[in-house]
Design a protein that fits this description.
The protein is an alpha+beta fold and 278 residues long. Helix content is 28%, strand content 22%. 39% of the residues are buried.
């Protein structure tokens, strides 16, 4: 599933091409995504409107129109939002195609169809965005992501620290790959109860979270199966993995064998020496 870095890489890849462009045509596949495609709202509020900018909140992309309406896109598990030349061959899972006045198209391709497309009309956009944002956690690259804030979030929570990092209602955008990498870099075992961490522990988590996420963005995200950025290029952060997917390989720090377990139903990787079990 695309996590925060992959969504941000997609946003940055489209920023040089979308602002100032007008949507001149809209096409859909007719196949249902996680929620029904809002075809009527797309034609009423997005068609023939000029794109102002493209923002990100958590794992969502927010395409802001000059009218004040917002097109909201979630990439789901296998979604890619890419730029194509008008007339390029369509694929079965191109579920939303926006043709621009530049002669290019923005296409949402999602083979497993767990993605989502929503439209917030201009009159309701501010209220809808406030309600939406309130349901999402704090941004790991934002000013609220501090050791003391995380310490307060974890207080009295009987949950593993890895599960807390992946709880999108508390912290936005950190999925399984990056939670594994962050905790290894922080020398914290994934199963450690979050409430047991000190402010100093959380300070390491903050520093390593921001370092790893920024490095992942700079290297184009992680391509494990089929993620491609907006320009069709894969990411390369997987070349920097320290523990994720490295079961039975030596720890890059101490040489001990990396161990794979399952925590809350998700594959979890750790070094038994660098991350002693609680």
């Amino acid at each position: 599933m695309p996590e925060l870095p992959e969504v941000e890489v997609t946003r940055q890849g489209l920023l040089d091409h979308l602002p100032g462009r007008t949507v001149t045509a809209i096409a859909v596949s007719g196949l249902r995504l996680r929620i029904p495609m809002p075809l009527g709202l797309l034609h009423e509020h997005i068609l023939q409107r000029r794109i102002q900018t493209l923002d990100r909140r958590a794992k969502y992309l927010l395409m802001r129109m000059d009218s004040g309406a917002v097109l909201v896109i979630h990439l789901g598990m296998t979604g890619k939002l890419g730029l194509h030349e008008d007339g390029a061959a369509r694929h079965r899972h191109d579920h939303l195609i926006l043709t621009l006045d530049s002669g290019q198209q923005v296409r949402l391709n999602d083979s497993r169809r767990f993605g989502a497309v929503m439209v917030w009309p201009a009159k309701a956009a501010q209220e809808a965005e406030c309600a939406f944002s309130a349901r999402e956690g704090i941004e790991p690259l934002g000013s609220e992501f501090t050791a003391r804030h995380l310490h307060r979030l974890a207080d009295r929570r009987i949950v593993a620290v890895k599960s807390l990092l992946m709880n999108g209602r508390l912290i936005a955008g950190i999925g399984n790959i990056y939670a594994n990498e962050i905790l290894f870099a922080s020398r914290i075992h994934p199963a450690t109860e979050a409430r047991r961490l000190t402010v100093a522990d959380w300070r390491r988590v903050v520093v390593e979270s921001q370092r790893i996420l920024q490095l992942a963005i700079a290297t184009g995200g992680s391509t494990i199966a089929d993620f491609l950025g907006a320009t069709g290029h894969p990411g390369y952060f997987q070349l920097h993995f320290q523990v994720y997917g490295r079961e039975r390989l030596p720890c890059p720090r101490c040489g001990q064998t990396i161990v794979k377990t399952v925590l809350a139903g998700r594959a979890t990787y750790s070094c038994p020496v660098c991350q002693p079990a609680p």
